[in-house]
Amino acid sequence: MADDKEQLKTDAEASIKRNPHPDFKKVEASRPPWRDLQWTFSQTSNPGWQFEQGANDGGESLRKSHVEIDPNEEGRPSTHNYKLLISGIVPRPIGFISTRSKDGLSTNLAPMSYTQVVNHDPPVFVVGFAGGFDNPKDTLKNLKESGECTINMISEHFLEAANSTSIDAPYGVSEWTLSGLTPAPSSKVKCSRVQESIFSVEGVLMETKEFESRVTPGKKTGVLAIIEGIRFWVREDAINEEKNLIDPAILKPMSRLGGITYGRTTEGIEIPRPQWSKESERVQEMTKPKANGQL
Hints:
seven-stranded antiparallel β-sheet; three-stranded antiparallel β-sheet; 8 helices; 22% helix
């Protein structure tokens, strides 16, 4: 039974056809080498932008039509929705999740790009898993049974090692040893942090929600895990004195785009939020309950 479930996971990954290159190493060799880019700030494309001015593309985006897609259209494979969403909802933070089996005999480490912080008091994170509890990913199995995890952010200096843990190893094989990354002790949970990670969170499971297919009723297609962060760990050279801000020049976070593509964050743009108390008189004539032509 265990072998059958592992084969199902392998088949599911193969059906996605995530890698578009028959010979990836050949394609990679044709590209420019890695550039060690330093974090910088730039202006926006239009620092003099004013209210009502709209987009900065001279109307180009208004001259293009959109294609309507029904995610539940008859005959549309669910993998099409997956590939569309991971290429359109970008960049996505990567939750590098460390878990431990309930009996403590095995550990798991895996990158999850369906990860986000959704609250700060208490600190709450969500992680999405493909597939249901009937055939759970190793991370989900451990998280559900032990109720604990650590969420580690991936930086440039260990991208390859982090990516290696996405291998479809059978349950009980620890990705820690394959990656060469260093387990560090946590203070409130039993599973390890990633020592190389600039920012890590110790988390406890709050609840889960299982999803069912719209196209194939009865088929479980995903699980949402809601996790409370109970301890933060930040590398000493990345945190400010007030312990409330992490330096992006040190963090150098990696994100996920579509397919097998990762993104780097090397440039920032600062824009203050407008305040109604300061802008209300100037924009009074522009304000309406709805935009022109809006239903």
